[in-house]
Structure formats: C-alpha cells, structure tokens
Amino acid sequence: xxxxxxxxxxxDGTYQRLRADILGGRLVPGQRLKFPELCERYETSxxxxxxxxxxxxxxxxxxxxxxxxxxxxxxxxxxxADLTLARVEVESLxxxxxxxxxxxxxxxxxxxxxxxxxxxxxxxxxxxxxxSDQWVEAHAAYHVALLAGCPNRRLLDTALALRExxxxxxxxxxxxxxxxxxxxxxxxxxxRDAAIARDADLAADRLRDHIAHTAxxxxxxxxxxxxxxxxxxxx
Amino acid sequence: xxxxxxxxxxxDGTYQRLRADILGGRLVPGQRLKFPELCERYETSxxxxxxxxxxxxxxxxxxxxxxxxxxxxxxxxxxxADLTLARVEVESLxxxxxxxxxxxxxxxxxxxxxxxxxxxxxxxxxxxxxxSDQWVEAHAAYHVALLAGCPNRRLLDTALALRExxxxxxxxxxxxxxxxxxxxxxxxxxxRDAAIARDADLAADRLRDHIAHTAxxxxxxxxxxxxxxxxxxxx
DNA sequence: CGTCAACAAACTTTCGAAAGTTTGTGTTGC
DNA sequence: GCAACACAAACTTTCGAAAGTTTGTTGACG
Lengths: 235, 235
Known about the structure:
- 2 copies of one chain form a homodimer.
- By secondary structure, chain A is mainly alpha-helical.
- In chain A, 63% of the residues lie in helices and 3% in strands.
- The first copy, chain A, has helices at residues 10-23, 35-41, 46-59, 77-101, 104-118, 133-147, 153-171, 184-196, 200-224, and strands spanning 32-33, 62-64, 70-72.
- In chain A, strand 2 and strand 3 form a beta hairpin.
- The longest helix of chain A is centred in the middle third of the chain and has 25 residues, at 77-101.
C-alpha cells in the first residue's frame, strides 16, 4: 500500500497544496489553472485536481466558468471593499460571541498567541520593507485564536474563510512597511485587553476599527501604485 | 452532439437535481448517498456525481468523511440552534443593507413578492394541516426578494445559503399548521412596510423576531414529537 | 460465550484515455 | 485589405474499469 502524501486521500492532498500555493502567493490571482500543468505540478490525475478545484471554488479562492476551466480568483478594488464590509460585520460578530462564550482554555490561547505576535519581528531579516513570513503567520494565528471561542461553527467558519481571502489581498499589496501614523501593536493589545476583560462590545468595536484601518491602507496604497496583478492578468 | 440535460455541463445537471431532491425532501437527512444508487438515479457517472457532491458538501447540504462516502446532512436540535443564531444575525444584517441600498426595482419586486405571498393559500387543497407547496415557494421567494437589494454578494450568498438550510428543517418538522397565537401574515407585512419606508433598523429587528419565532416553534414542536429523521437514520 | 482474525462483499477513490468545446490560425472569397 | 469560414491545436469534460478501504461475516480459539 502506498501512503497518501498529504491527507488521507489524494484529492485532499492536492486540495491542501493548491490552497497553500494560492494563499502563499505562488500562484498569481487571475492566473488560469490548466489541468495539464496542475497534474504535473502536483503529480496527480485530472480527476483529483478537478475535485480539489471544485472545493476551492466553493470556498471562493478559485473561480470557474463552464468549459473555460478554473483560475485563481482575481483581485479588484471593488471586491476588496465588499470583502472588508463583510469582514467588519461578521468578524466583529464572531469576536463578540467568542468573548461571551470562550472558556479559560480559549482565553489562555489568545493570550499566548498575542504574546508570540508581540515578540515576532515585523520585518524580515533580508527583505527591508516587506512583512516577515513569521509575523504574517503569527498575526493570522492571533486573530484566529481570538475568534476560536465562538461556539457557532457556521459563523466561525464564515469568518475564517473571509480572513483567508483578505490574506490574499494583503499578500498582493505593495509593501506597507511605512504606515503613516498607526499603532498596530497598540490596536492588537487593545483588542486583547478588551477580550480578556470580557467586554464583548468594546472588543468587537476595536476589531472593527482594526479591520477597517488595514483595509483602508490597502486601498489607498493600491490606488497609488496599482500593482494588483489581477488587472494585468489573463484574458 | 448530445444536448446536456439541465445546465451546460453534466456535473452541473446532477448537482442541480441532487440539490433539488435534498431541498425537496425526496432524500432523507442522514441518508447515505452511495455512488451506485446515485449513478442510476441520475443517469450519470461516478465522476460527475462525486463532483456534484463535493460542491454540495461545501455548501453544507451534504457531509462527508474520507473513505466513508457522502450523506445528506443530518438534522439536530443543537444544529438548529446554531443555524438560527447565524440566520438571525446574518439575515438581519443583509436586510439592513438591502433596505439601505436597494433601488426602485428591488422595492417593486419585494412588494410584488409580498403581494403574491399574501394571496397564496397557506394550506394545500388535499393535505389538511401541511403547508402548501405553493405557499412555501412564495414564502421563500418573498424573503429572497427582501434580501436581494444587498449589494454585497458575499454576504447575500451567505444569507441565502443559511436560508436554504433552514428550509430543510422546516420541511422535516411536523406540521405546524396550528400555531398558538401568532400573526405570521402581520409579521410579513410589518417587515415589508418597514423596508418600503426605508427604516433599515426596524426592518432588521422585525426580521430577527420573525426568524426567532419560527425557529422557536420548530424547536418546541420537535420536542413534543421528535420526528426529525436524523436521530433514527444511519449509523 | 465472547474475542479475535481471516475472508468476502460492497463501496469509495483513482486514473487515463475518449469525447466534446473552446480558442487560435490560416485560407478563401469579396 | 477585411470578413467569414473551415481547420487544427489545446484544453475541458466525461466515463468506466482497476485499485484501495471499509464494513460485515464466518470460523476458530481461548
């Protein structure tokens, strides 16, 4: 018997890898995903690739049209605005529920994630004004930990899916190393404090601001140098 | 060339039919969906059925575990509570956006759908205390029309998906013909009036109550006669 | 009598080639 | 030169059988 690579099934394996490649920026938004290429890249068959793509399409990371194949979801300013509104509403709601219902274990894990985030250097050692991979990871982990206390799986999953899409935008935006006058560290701490103090409304409000600020930065930033690859991509 | 049956692609066709069969109650919640059966029933191949199921699984209408196939999503009281909370929050949000941003076309279609709903008999001609198919359809159409003004596709789609899951619960609950002291017609009219008056907050509040009431009914109703098939189904 | 192992049946997963579409190219007619 | 058409290439979709898992059964052993 041949051990499956990633998960317990071949389809799942290619799904994971494909997803990681999109989220990790190794596949450009708007890029067409042809089966011959995919099959070679992931050492899989058409069927498996197809199923993985179907799953990703439902998740919103990939788009498709009948008889015209699949492609990485394209980025656009309009969509970013939509996404941000959705995140502001849904994430703040989920955080509120999380703060209200999270148990001690949730609390401690949130604190731990925040601790790690604060101690992780923002910019990497090599690249000057690009966020370090470690920070990006720690940042995502912190936000996920905050939300994880929400007992409603449906809402939680929606929020996490939205976050992931937002990560795509963050990844493909220009280096936002020099943010004007913004105290990101303070914002994160503020959310943590409100959450630990079990002040659900305050935590939710602070998260709203946090998300809106970040998005605003991406939008203006992209307006200056429109390097969102979607516009220049296929078609 | 052989014209495809439903949509433009065979996979899509089986997806549509399968989905309709689940939503229409022709497939029982919890029921296992075996490929041999599916292939015969929908005159399709394993691959197509598999892809359709993958899509439905992502939508939440079907559940799966590796190497153990697919089954219609099981119903449970706990899940109904989760679903209801999610609906109350998301649907009211979407309605608020819809009221704020809906144009005249939206307004007129909502009025039209409401008009149709009010004039459709609640109970069918044959079955005494079961909702008529026509009323169920008109009811769903009315609520969809209300939400349709929301310009944020992401949120709108989420709300619609949640509604669909809720329809499953409604379908599989006992006949709720004799509701104690509830004015459903009045509730619907109230939401419409608030929406037309462009009072977003009032409309959202009324919708919250409407959803919560219906769910409450389902829960108590199911407590009395626990005929949710999930409990007695497979496994 | 209950437990465990080996076996068999039924189903799920995987694959790759055949069939069907779309897209791009070159050619003809005007 | 330009438009329409036909042809070819590349890709997407579909299929069904082979391979791999799980589930249920039978029989032997403690």
